[in-house]
Design goal:
273 residues; two-stranded antiparallel ribbon; two-stranded parallel ribbon; 8 helices; 68% helix; globular
């Protein structure tokens, strides 16, 4: 791996920047573990109370749709870590249609839900009929489908960027792999729908971790491209600087959005209806 002067400096600067960004986020975020989780959700989700699952009288850090999306992303990343390793091939083309349908379901349900929200809050667009009355169950399942779709294409893109000799095999090449991935998330969604605190407490932490993991991977790819380090790594332990840089950029983005939204609304709660 070629070590330029900039790469050498980054070995010192990146950890310091990561520490500063994390400390800054810890300082502005609400107290407690769930408060920190709220601060992650606050950056990517509307957090409207009635569109979120509840633990007692406390809403989860992300709404039902985002809880599905980012918990699916977290479990999907774990699934691929176990089953795919350094595989860099996109899913086999026979799976493009199911993933396209997941995306379409997410877009349709999201649009229908947004239209319903506008009617609720402003009374406008009454002339446009809703396809159906939106609900948290559909938000959860369509969000989960979208989360699995995102990580299924993000993982090979990450591996294509990182590894010196990536495995060209597809991350999903068989129906067994595809159905295993879908079945795992389907069972988890059914457990979430029980609304048992035993399930919702872990999901309240796992879904924000899904946000952080995806954004860290995306910003790590950007970092490697800027630093011209694409396809230079052989082992996972060599990735600590790019991943830490990606995490730092993620924290800075979340801090920026959190502060802007807090200034705009004056509350850590969801957007008012």
């Amino acid at each position: 791996m070629q070590n330029t002067w900039l790469q050498k400096i980054s070995r010192w600067l990146v950890p310091l920047a990561a520490l500063a960004a994390f400390a800054g986020w810890m300082y502005i975020a609400p107290p407690g573990v769930l408060g920190k989780a709220d601060a992650v959700g606050y950056a990517v989700c509307h957090r409207i109370d009635e569109r979120s699952f509840q633990i007692g009288d406390r809403q989860l850090p992300l709404c039902a749709r985002c809880s599905g999306t980012f918990s699916a992303a977290a479990f999907g990343l774990l699934f691929f870590a176990v089953t795919s390793g350094q595989k860099s091939g996109m899913p086999d083309k026979k799976f493009y249609l199911p993933f396209a349908l997941f995306f379409l379901a997410f877009a349709i349900d999201g649009s229908n839900s947004y239209l319903y929200l506008i009617k609720q809050t402003t009374g406008g667009l009454a002339q446009i009929p809703n396809l159906y009355v939106p609900n948290n169950t559909l938000r959860l399942f369509t969000g989960s489908g979208m989360g699995l779709t995102m990580v299924t294409f993000l993982v090979p893109a990450f591996n294509q960027t990182v590894w010196q000799n990536p495995n060209p095999a597809p991350t999903i090449g068989t129906w067994k792999q595809f159905l295993s991935l879908i079945s795992i998330m389907f069972v988890i969604d059914l457990l979430i729908l029980t609304e048992s605190p035993i399930v919702l407490y872990p999901i309240a932490l796992i879904s924000p971790l899904g946000v952080l993991a995806q954004l860290t991977m995306i910003f790590s790819i950007v970092w490697m491209m800027v630093m011209r380090q694409e396809n230079t790594f052989e082992k996972f332990r060599q990735l600590w600087i790019p991943l830490l840089a990606g995490f730092t950029l993620t924290m800075l983005m979340i801090i920026g959005i959190d502060l802007f939204r807090l200034q705009l609304t004056g509350t850590w709660s969801g957007f008012p209806l």
